[in-house]
Fold this protein.
Amino acid sequence: MTDKVIVLGGGIVGLSCAFEAAGRGYKVTVVETGKPGGQASGAAAGMLAPYSENTEQPDAFFRLCLDSLRRYPQWLEEIEEASGRRIERIPSGSLNIVYHEADLSPLRTRLLWQNRFGAEAEIVEGSRLRELEPLLSPNVEAALYCPRESHVYAPDLVSALEDACRSRGVHIADHCGAVTDVRLTSAPGVTVSTEARGDIAGDRLVVCTGAWTGALGRWFGLHFPVHPIRGQICAYELPVGVVRHMVFSPQAYWTSKGNGTLVCGASEDVAGFDTAVTEKGIGRLVRSGPKAFPFLADKPLIHRWAGLRPATRDGWPLLGQLAEAPHVVIAAGHYRNGILLSPATGASVADLLDGKADRTELAPFSPGRFTLALAGGLPV
């Protein structure tokens, strides 16, 4: 008999888990309160940049991000085949720029350890830097160039992934409204109660509820300190190729999309579940632009938006089974890396469902780690 898996949450992480589980033969239902991909996933800039996002050391989180980057080409092929749609992935590489010679030392430190993990990075200055990115300000002293990083257009990826899930037989129950109850049984089994669609029953549960995960802990007797961080983003109209790489500065990042826009992000603030765009947040991004790219000084914005990033207290996702209810898997709290981590998360969740997961590799991301810390009186 085929197990019925309920995936709670229809963002890119939930859809990735559903896609992989269905590919392994499970009967999957995605339960989404609103529209699939309607929260952080659709608002993301879509950067696949584990080297730029992890600058300190090759810890377990960096290794998870790198593993997911390496899975991306095959994963996209599978989605394209299942959905019949093409997904834009631009292998642009990245430039992490600095404005002062004194800031070169941290870049050199990063270069040493990241190149041991396949970054193929180099420090670029002078004419070499201007050859790579001609419109950078002359005040930019140097950059760490990493050719292995890339980016995708997140809204199209999420839409194609939804189609791919349906192609594999996934039932997507959207616009379910709020989850009012989660009941576990000893069968094992689970029933999820929703405002608009009533009860949905299954054998296994995968929780992929992003920034809303913190509210679910009460049903499992656990502490899930996942909270929303509002990320505000804006875009300029700009032909493809004018800005050639993903460019990261200490204040912002810029990435050129195939639809003729230059995306700039992302200011962050704590505003609960408010996704309103503010002049203060967007203003920070607009002011940072001319410092890196002088041509942006008089460039009008054509779009501005915000999304909620699901952050944990240590910045690492919750990924694993519940000790007291192993038929429940948590995959949430991916913060800035939901798009990047989707292939590895989907594979890990499916391995957990199959009973084949490497528990040593997943141990640092245990969903119970904050509950254990509270019980032991440790700071969380």
User: Anything to note?
Assistant: The CA atoms of residues 22 and 168 lie 6 Å apart.
